[in-house]
Design a protein that fits this description.
The protein is an alpha+beta fold and 338 residues long. The chain has helices at 16-28, 52-55, 58-63, 99-116, 160-166, 182-185, 199-212, 229-243, 246-249, 295-302, 309-319, 330-337, and strands at residues 6-10, 34-38, 43-46, 68-70, 78-80, 84-92, 121-124, 128-131, 134-144, 147-155, 222-224, 258-264, 267-276, 279-287.
Amino acid sequence: MNKDTVMCITDHGHDPYWNLAAEEYLLKRLPNPVFRLWRNSESVIIGKNQNALAEIDRDWITSHGIPVVRRLTGGGAVFHDMGNLNFSFIRKREAGEDTHAMFARYTMPVISTLRGLGIDARLEGRNDLTIGDRKFSGNAIAIYRDRVLCHGCILFEASLDKLSGALNSRPEKFIGKAVSSNRSRVTNISEHLKEPVDIENFIGLLKENAITGELASYGSGIETYEYTEADIAAIDSLADEKYRLDSWNYGKSPKYSISRVRKFPAGLVEIYADIKEGLVSDIKIMGDYFFEAPTEELETALLGCPYDSEAVQTALVRAGLSKYIAGVTPQDIVEMMF
């Protein structure tokens, strides 16, 4: 197989644990560029660094038997069901390409598909696709070595009532404006179609737009890819050893002496820390921000740091904060902590 050939994958399984494990496997283990279309059964998918218990209505999802799965990428929590379509692009990162350019590039097939159906879809804010003032798709990015994964979820004909029940509307995200329900801020594509289109036909239209647009620009050929037995075994193992575990999906509930939450234009940031003898003895950083390097590295850089504003700012600058929390400055974090 030519490693430059684009592998097109349309998944037929709907297990959210397996599908999220497949994303990581395809990013890290398959050398080829990938375009993937997939759907999950009812589930809540949370961002890599989010505080799961703050983002979900745990009583509601428990009573409805809905699993919570943490993904590899940043961004916010989303509700998935069979009326929700997910798309993924995986390929070598272009030199100098920032996240804004990546979102614009990899969401264009979705926008083009909808405009072909008479719907004026747009990329708004940092990572949202909207129709009018309502969101129908959130998108997120993960970077592994020289490869990038950009994926998004599309509300086609999802249950917005279940979406509203499963996810919390956190007041911190609406400073300076009225807190609105999740239900009122989103829309299904199906509500805007002039003529009925079912989700299977929409999948075909999106795939065609991706193949004739973004994927054709690679100039390296396109093939339909079927998982090998080795692929399936590896993804099964990753799902069982990581994505099905509460330790990955929920993590340790933050209980620290210092607790700070602040909404920045680039996303929500939560900092939990303990201080002993004037030094940072433990710290956990969470949120729906985007990142290029693991947050755990930043936490390690702050351990043992004197708990004063100048020392913390110096440590953040030395660590290179922007690669861990995009769009937030060391001064922002210092003002938040002190």
